[in-house]
Specification:
By secondary structure, this protein is an alpha/beta fold. It is built from twelve helices and 13 strands. Helix 8 links the parallel strand 7 and strand 8. The chain binds 6-O-phosphono-beta-D-fructofuranose.
Length: 341
């Protein structure tokens, strides 16, 4: 077989480790050939490719980013997009695709499968919000980066008796906020799944100051006050209809300073959470997902996504994976809330 590989959506530590595993096993065990499509779905749409041999991918296990490039291109929002993809895949002599992505990229993969082309998906996103898998690769790295940053912010906050608000990624799901906040003993964690009561946040912050602790408030970018709205960077939408979030940290720090009288600062961790080398956990998870993805493609088990269940890698349908986002349950949030204030 000749198999195309692409990486779509926001980049994520571990993408290169998946590519390495797919190509290494696919070449050595099955004798398949590979072609890399560049910049997510823009590659198949515009016929942008690069060679992808075992030698090309041999040393990629710890390298961040993606050697294939990425974009948020949605071929279904382009006139004649499906026909152009069909034509370009045929031109490249490709029999199947392995697509590494989150809800948007894999949503396209599902539609392509429905439209008769063979695609296997691999779950990628630092947000960890894809259904049907316990974890996505990249999440552990993002949480580790956020946790190290929060540890560092705590000492400077303590020196200055300040409230420190840390804004982390997480558009619709607060997994990064929840895990990085729990790991660092954050005094308040705010997630998109539960609107927060500003008065209650002030009371937690004041309780910390009263006992001589500089409070750390971890806020997911999609968190919002009850009766308020998401903080947006601007009004633009990407090809999948998503707005760019950002600003909740600054807004909250100002409100907290005004309402509690305690000096406050905010830090936006932003794309630092997606950059650099994956953790050892993510390298292993990515490698295992890649090994199983090439098995699925070899067996022509299309319309599937490889997923982590417990410690096993299993196959689920792309429909199940992209049907609904995996969000933080009230029970999981309540566990973290035990330590607020
Ligand atoms: O990939 C997911 C994500 O990191 C979200 O957490 C975040 O809202 C978004 O991507 C940022 O996208 P961009 O890189 O396009 O600014």
């Amino acid at each position: 077989m000749r198999i195309g590989v692409l990486t779509g959506g926001g980049d994520c530590p571990g993408l290169n480790a998946v590519i390495r595993a797919v190509v290494t096993k696919g070449t050595a065990e099955y004798g398949h050939e590979f072609v890399g499509f560049l910049d997510g779905w823009r590659g198949p749409l515009k016929g942008l490719t690069r060679p992808l041999t075992a030698a090309d991918v041999a040393d990629l296990v710890e390298v961040g980013g993606t050697v294939l490039g990425s974009s948020r291109t949605n071929p279904y929002s382009v006139d004649g997009g499906l026909d152009r993809i069909r034509h370009n895949l045929e031109d490249a002599g490709v029999d199947a695709l392995i697509a590494l992505g989150g809800e948007d990229t894999l949503g396209v993969a599902k539609r392509l499968t429905d439209d008769g082309f063979g695609v296997v998906g691999v779950p990628k996103t630092i947000d960890n919000d894809l259904s049907a898998t316990d974890y996505t690769f990249g999440f552990d790295t993002a949480v580790s980066i956020a946790a190290e940053s929060i540890d560092r912010l705590r000492t400077t906050a303590q020196s200055h008796h300040r409230t420190m608000v840390v804004e982390v990624m997480g558009r619709h799901a607060g997994w990064i906020a929840l895990h990085s906040g729990m790991a660092t003993g954050a005094n308040v964690i705010l997630i998109p799944e539960q609107d927060f009561d500003l008065g209650q946040v002030c009371r937690w912050v004041e309780a910390c100051h009263a006992r001589g602790v500089a409070p750390i408030v971890v806020a997911a970018e999609g968190a919002q006050p009850a009766g308020g709205a998401e903080s947006l960077k601007d009004q633009e939408r990407d090809a999948f209809g998503h707005v760019r979030l950002g600003g909740i940290g600054d807004w909250l720090a100002e409100e907290l300073e005004e309402r509690t009288g305690m000096e406050s600062r905010s830090v936006v961790l932003g794309h630092l959470q997606r950059g650099g080398t994956p953790t050892a956990y993510d390298r292993v998870l990515s490698t295992r997902l890649g090994l199983h993805a090439i098995d699925a493609a070899h067996e022509r088990d299309f319309g599937t996504m490889v997923a982590l269940r417990g410690t096993d890698i299993v196959r689920v349908s792309l429909a199940e994976a992209t049907g609904a986002l995996k969000t933080v349950s009230p029970e999981r949030y309540a566990e973290a809330a035990t330590f607020f204030g």
